[in-house]
Amino acid sequence: MNRNLFSRSMAAVLGLALLVAAGALQAEPIGESKPFAEKFLLLQLSDGEEKKQDKVLSVAANLLEYYGPDIIDIEITTFGPGVRLMYADNSRRERISSLMAQGVRFSVCMNTINTIERDTGTRPDLHPESIPVDVGVAHILDEVEAGYVLVRP
């Protein structure tokens, strides 16, 4: 009988510990732009294909619709061929601007832009509201370390 009581007591203590730990894992605001956000998502785009561009924009739009723009904090980070999404003349400019109006941030790897300029002699014009980051992959690592979940659609 003492064993049964001990087992129940230990199960109760472990259950309580799990509840306390789960409470500690609640999402806390990471950025100031979305103080009530509960979900923090970083979408990676390193592919220049139009289908991939459409997919990453659709994922962002679908999640905004599902959670609501105040509950989810979304950033799309582009590097390598993925920076083409942020070219000023990209045919998806209106979709990008619509997502930006709902709080989605778009960062662009300036290391890639500098390489394009060095290789072609021309610096591409970027969407005026894109956020330059020195090194896209390093930015991704920093954001993941800060608590963002990385998804590569």
Automatic annotation (TrEMBL):
Keywords from the named record: Signal
Gene3D superfamilies: DsrEFH-like
Alphabetized InterPro entries for the sequence: DsrEFH-like
Coiled-coil ranges per UniProt: none
Signal peptide: 1-27
UniProt name for this protein: Intracellular sulfur oxidation protein, DsrE/DsrF family
